[in-house]
From TrEMBL:
Keywords: Dioxygenase, Endoplasmic reticulum, Glycoprotein, Iron, Metal-binding, Oxidoreductase, Repeat, Signal, TPR repeat, Vitamin C. Pfam families: 2OG-FeII_Oxy_3, TPR_leprecan. Residues 544-661 form the Fe2OG dioxygenase domain. It comes from Poecilia formosa. GO terms for biological process: collagen metabolic process. This is procollagen-proline 3-dioxygenase. One of its GO terms (molecular function) is iron ion binding. Its EC number is 1.14.11.7.
Amino acid sequence: MVFICRHSSSSPATAVGSASRTMALRSEHFTPYDFLYYSGVRAYYGEEWAKAAELLEKSIQTKEALLRTRRQCHDDCVASGTKAFNKLDSEEGSMWDLWALDWIQQKAECLRFCIGRSVAPTGQLPVSNDIEYEFNTRNPYNFLQVTYYKLEKLKKAASAAHTYFVANPSHLEMRNNIEKYRRMEGVTEDDFQDRETEKHWVLYDAAMQHEASSDWLQAAEKWRACVNETLWRIDECRVQCEVSPQLLPEDRGVDGVDGAFEKAAALSLSLLSCRQSCVTQVATRPGRISAQEDFLPTQLEHLHIAQFKSGDVSGALQTLRSFLLFYPNDRDSLDNLQLYYETLGGDAESHGIHPAQEIAKYVNQSLQEKSLLYFGVENLNFTFTDPDLWTPEDVVPESLRKNWRAEKQVINEKIKEGDQIEEVDDSGFYAGGSVPQVGVTITMDDDALNGTNRVVLDGVMTEKECDKILQLATVAASLGDGYRGRRSPHTPHETFEGLTILRAVKLSQEGLVDQSDTRLLHELGERVRTLLHSYFRSPSGLFISFTHLVCRSAATGEQEGRMDLSHPVHVDNCLLEPETKQCWREPPAFIHRDLSAILYLNDNFDGGELFFTERDAKTVTARVKPSCGRLVGFSSGPVNPHGVTAVTRGRRCALALWFTKEKLYRDMEREEAEAMWAADGQSALKKDEEEEEKEGGATVGRNARSHAPKERSRGRNAVTGRKDEL
């Protein structure tokens, strides 16, 4: 079995056609894709829908054409300077520096001429990091889906919405829009096409599915194709590192780089670092922040097993030999190698099977690059983050090995934790403490709820208290509160209303709601905090991070045939990935949340049950039916994925609370409300401040809602404030 890696984007037979396509970029009217994008966004906000669609589509097409042109020119210029390069190993090699410069100059001249005849000078300029971010997150499709909707081109709108949603799976408005498109006349499932499909992930998922059904022949075919596609994508990325505009070292603000050799070294190290980062880019799924570790070796491991099980032992042997280039001392792999030799009869021919040529080339090239980069780290103050776990220790200089080993150990431990079958809750909470309130009973504990750090308490509120808060919600809750006004943030079949304590206090001061009801809403947060702090035996302080009175109502005429959930399965402080059973504690998740709670107010509705699942988001482990005064508390981490079943009739109301051990992330809106009461000469029902100081943490405060980690830290006026919900 031989891996076939597509090194060139076109064969000689198609090179002319490719050149004619890219030549179209060069004209008097050529416009850089970043300018086209900005112009399209301006037209969008000006509601010039046809113009916006044209400009946004052109920006996408122009960028694709530019990348193709650069790749084609790279391939066309491979042979440039070969004569000078060959002299480096000849008798004339004593002038190696001049021959090396001759080779570099000829290569540069070829690339400049090739790209220059296809792309105007303005199109060759580097774009800003902001523009790179917009295209990497597929934001042009965010604008296009609304644009096409306004133009009544629903099929194109559905495709644009799906394309954006694939890379932004937590974007609730887009999910709602997709559900609306599905119900529109003339739109079919085939219209939801990903215009930016990354083929290696399609093949990866297909291979996993064939494995799951024990279809080993098909699995082997898909894994082989996946390996080839992954190698090709890495190569494409590496080529772009070479041919894309690069800033000179002095433009980067590198201090102390004065001589020609130092500058050349800095630029070459940047190039090598860019090449090394390609495996991370290719191994990161759309919509994910973290790359899949050991992406290529993992594929090879799956492939050799599938080949063996499908009867292709020779192919399995070659693939396993390829895998051992990454991990030559892996015990299980060496045992499998012996098994494959024995299965083939142990003849000389089987021992002559070598690793796939493309894999050997990839490993050798990568190791040489790493050696140069680590030399730069040790001696030239260069910064390099190794993207691979398989890097052998002897590549790393002795002076750097201690830190390198420590970093590698941390990563390996995280991976090992993720692979553990038995869930371990590292939240620091220990269920089973006392319940310090008369009349409150433990209805369900960890055993009854089939999980860790979960509890259901009854009797937390009286019927009268439930009625008062329900009345407050009826009078003061507003549609879409807490979700930027989106009345249906989780499902189009329900409407969502919310109320925060600060808004309730402001309304009470204006005489629009009863002050006693507002005080009760505030006091319930402290009541829940006291109960859960005691029951979960928190060793440190526990601060309220956010309190939200929420009501979900079934939409009239929208319930027939419902298959969705009122709130999809999720984890409160990390991003759950059910396919891999990983939960990524990174933005945009609220990573500061430690403990979650739901205090129910009523039960006169259908559906709306809370349920817990395993990390696959499918296997339900426990269900909780709401009722007045029932409190559900649980640790906010990956041991407790949960969701809410559809509310198909009536209105479900509850008080949602989240708690944190870090005082830095306490709810500043709550404190603002308390300050407003104090200014009126009224006492707020809260814990003594000195007691809270004893319980924990920092003295600096900020609003955890508004300062929670965001997926994107930068912002630009040109593209903020979307109209992305239909």
